[in-house]
Amino acid sequence: MPTLRIPTPLRPYTSGQSEVAVQGSNVSQVMNDLIARYPDLKPHLYNGEGSLRPFVNLFLGEDNIKDLQGIETPLEVEDRLLLIPSVAGGS
Amino acid sequence: MLPNLSHTEIMRYSRHLLIPEVGLEGQRKLKEAAVLVIGTGGLGSPVAMYLAAAGVGCIGLVDYDVVDFSNLQRQVIHGTSGIGALKVESARRRMLDINPGIQVDIYNEPFTSENAMRIARDYDILIDGTDNFPTRYLSNDVCVFLGKPNVYGSIYRFDGQVSVFDAQRGPCYRCLFPEPPPPGLVPSCAEGGVLGVLPGTIGTLQATEALKLILGIGDPLIGRLLLYNALDMSFEFVKLRKNPKCKVCGPEPEITELIDYEAFCGVPGHDHEEGSVGGNWDISATELAERLKKGNSIRLVDVREPHEQDISHIDGAELIPLGQLAGRLSELDSAEEMVVFCKAGTRSARALDLLVGAGFRKVKNLKGGINAWAREVDPSQPIY
Q: Which of B6, B259, B277, B351 is buried deepest, with most CB atoms within 10 A?
């Protein structure tokens, strides 16, 4: 199964897990599986209209899925997605 | 014409002069350079100290805060003797002790849309070491409008991000994050904490990038984002591309001058916990204590994390961490009087919003959190 790397601020919603295995053959399916497994993540990733929030970035390897085929980007079983949130901390 | 180096300077910078990529000319470039550091906190501390030590000729510092006891776990430019002093003054003292041969300009004011262009104009590079979204978007937009690179770093608990946003050569911060998260969705360091050494790592990387940009050497992080995790000791890189629809640096920009960033982000331009909801939704620690003493039946709900209960507690309170509250509403009774609290009142204000949204009306937020309780009511409890 593809894996998805969860950033620290979102780990409270994945029982502390930093990487989760998710089912699906494209980004959209994998994200639906993620939300089904961890429903508390949903408001952090999706807006009211059901689309990914603009500050949430998903990378497949080095590439932003926006630069690939968006949520339709196909995934292989060994693929690893990175979820990159915006973080403001600095002090 | 680059400035010359004195014999003293040549001795001070000898380890630089031995590196062919720096050499005498590079050191003269550093002497001529002017770098503006936004924030003299966790990230700003190593940035300012290393740039000073490296001989960057002019360093500007923007901050309006004073040194607080709880800063010292990570803000290594400040010391215990500086508590209560202006951060910019405290930082300048330390930098001039490291290197009296540089110029340190201080701006004891918040970085805002009104002053940002005036302050930033004379510097070659901006370093974003702020702690909040409004100032991050402001720093980005200032750099785009003035055509200057923005050396970005951010931190949370064990995670750090570093990049160089230079809209003339690559993407800007808004290309990656077109909009800020809704208020309250992403916790800050004041709420969630940060490993003290983390800003040291990230700030040092920012200083490294700034020096490379000045010297014109190496491969700067333009178009790349570094993701660091201290627990895994992992450094990962992703590619960033210019967003053709970017509202600030795209070919058809919608935003052509600085805006109201606090309104844009829906949060204040600082990372201090406000601790109150306003209106009749707050209760002070003193008032709560009086009402409990009179025998009023009030259910106390602690929305902090379990490990925070080891630090301080209020007798009789039950723990429901904020992240679990939505799923545990059935354990609460809207007919009961209830007071929610956290460390300083920020998370409990969010808990109160959630409860009111779910139909609870007899609920109040402990203003200033358990820290206010420790200050006003129970001095046996520590403040953290």
A: B351
The secondary structure of B222-242 as a DSSP string is BTEEEEEETTTTEEEEEE---
Q: Are residues B315 and B250 in the same domain?
A: no
Min Cα distance A31 → chain B (Å) is: 19
Least confident of A29-38, B259-268, B270-279, B336-345: B270-279
Domain with residue B289: its CATH number is: 3.40.250.10
> What element of type H or E holds B145?
helix B133-146
Name the interface residues of A facing B (CB cutoff 8 Å).
7-9, 12-13, 18, 40, 43-44, 53-55, 57, 59, 62-64, 67, 82, 84-91
Other CB atoms within 10 A of residue A74 CB: 13
pLDDT of residue A22: 96
CATH number belonging to domain A3-84: 3.10.20.30
- Beta partners for residue B37, in sequence order: B61, B127
Chain A closest CA to B363's CA: distance in Å?
24
pLDDT value, residue A91: 85
Predicted TM-score (pTM) of the model is 0.90
Spell out a b/e string for B63-76, using b for 16 or more CB atoms within 10 Å of the CB, else e.
Answer: bebbbeeebeebbb
What domain range includes position B48? Answer: 33-265
Percentage, residues of chain B above pLDDT 70: 99
Residue B381 pLDDT > 80, yes or no?
A: yes
How far apart are the C-alpha atoms of B272 and A89, rounded to whole Å?
Answer: 12
ipTM of this model? 0.93
Is B43 close to A84, i.e. CB distance below 8 A? no
B270 to each of B134, B178, B273, how far by Cα in Å? 8, 20, 9
Q: What CATH number should be reported for the domain holding residue B165?
A: 3.40.50.720
- Looking at residue B267, its pLDDT comes to 84
Indicate the residue among B207, B234, B265 that finishes a domain. Answer: B265
pLDDT of B294 = 95
Residue B183 within any structural domain of the chain? yes
- Total H helices, total E strands in chain B: 16, 13
Pairwise CA distance, residues B223 & B227, whole Å: 13
